[in-house]
């Protein structure tokens, strides 16, 4: 027997928020989400500055950057569930306070140790904010308006990282790198003021105790798996740290599933719901789409900087068309889904994204420059926007209204895990393709320069300056080898997206039918 009562927003008079308030709520949670997403990738542009100022090794700098993402991913599910229990509004307010304070501390940090503490604290605050922002939408907006609101949320989540990188690169170029944290603080202040004024509260009422053991197991599982994916490309897949992270993650994940099956009605996440096509199809789509997006960034930045010779800021600007198309398509997706169905919309988006990848793989060249990749970027952005919104809606609709914090957290964990997986796998394919191609192009190059060039295209361009008569040949060899590795990684992405298209077309989420407001998805799923 389900003892949970549907969570409802605490509106005066018990009614649904009016259009003005709904608009203010959407702006508030979108601004809060933007602060979190922009901070995921923003610090990447300041790696060199941090290493010099803190006197830190590259491994320390990477830990400063990755600790935020690692803590965020690990705590999403537990804190999303806590938001359901304690109330989404107070958890959002607390998260904004923690995140804002951590951003101020990071901006003032003058040592690597203080910066690391600030980034970890920022990850904790972000893990409070991210799932609650989506849960506020799904538990507050009426069904007829929910899809459009989720479209806005997914657009911010998908394009916000690129926008954050652009603003961060601009700040680093025109001011001190510590100014990177001004934007998150400003966004937090705006989001906090609007949350206090407009966002209503909603929470789960449950007779069961909070699943503390399940929450800990989920945190350990995600930490181990994401850590392995982060360390594998840097230290090697057979490195003890990578293997230990993978083993701990797998064991904890098995323990988490067993715990949830044993608790059934009192589970933190009822894993039996993965039998439902909407939850499985939506989760797999988000995993693959965000993995491919992250993998593209791994390939594109070295192409823009080492092959085309662009600055970090100009390279980030070059990604903006993809972000703009992604955000626009995310807003269009609910209207398209209402006409053609969610599954068709999702499948069409996946097919378009795969087409964009294929365009880039076919036409990229050293001499083709940016025009050779722009059509592919536009198609990719549009396709991802069309697929992300119905996938997100499928995940959140698969859990009952009182479990929307958990549903939103599951959505976010899937995206974060997909991002780490995409960077690791597509990055590894690019590196392997580059090394395999450049070995055949180093004849006549001095041994020391050749060994350096094998490490990567950026290394080859840097060492070429010290090898006068060989410089041109070395740079040409490295750039062409990078393009060869690019094609290998892109075609692998096309293959994965093709498999995803077939899965969604044949076994994707069924198109939803209108239901009464407040009806739980669990009961609906049971009839399928």
Structure description:
This protein is an all-alpha fold. Among the domains are: 18-204, Growth Hormone, Chain: A (Up-down Bundle), CATH 1.20.1250; 211-267. Helices cover 77% and strands 0% of the residues. The protein is built from 18 helices and no strands. It has helices spanning 19-41, 47-54, 58-86, 88-108, 112-140, 143-174, 182-198, 212-235, 240-263, 277-307, 312-340, 342-363, 374-397, 404-438, 447-453, 457-464, 471-507, 521-526. Helix 8 (212-235) packs antiparallel against helix 9, helix 10 runs parallel beside helix 14 (404-438) and helix 10 runs antiparallel to helix 17. The chain is globular and about 75 Å long.
Précis, in short:
This protein is mainly alpha-helical and 528 residues long.
Produce the secondary structure layout.
Elements: H1 19-41, H2 47-54, H3 58-86, H4 88-108, H5 112-140, H6 143-174, H7 182-198, H8 212-235, H9 240-263, H10 277-307, H11 312-340, H12 342-363, H13 374-397, H14 404-438, H15 447-453, H16 457-464, H17 471-507, H18 521-526
CATH C-level class of the domain at 18-204 is: Mainly Alpha
Main sheet, how many strands, which sense, barrel? none
Average pLDDT confidence is 85
Q: What's the total helix number?
A: 18
Strand content: under 5%
What is the annotated CATH architecture of the domain at 18-204?
Up-down Bundle
How do the SSEs run, as a string of H and E? Answer: HHHHHHHHHHHHHHHHHH
What is the alpha-carbon Rg in Å?
23 Å
Estimated helix fraction: over 70%
What structural class is derived from the secondary structure elements? Answer: mainly alpha
As residue ranges, the low-confidence spans are 1-8, 10-14, 513-528
- Name the CATH homologous superfamily of the domain at 18-204: MFS general substrate transporter like domains
Number of strands: 0
CATH topology of the domain at 18-204: Growth Hormone, Chain: A
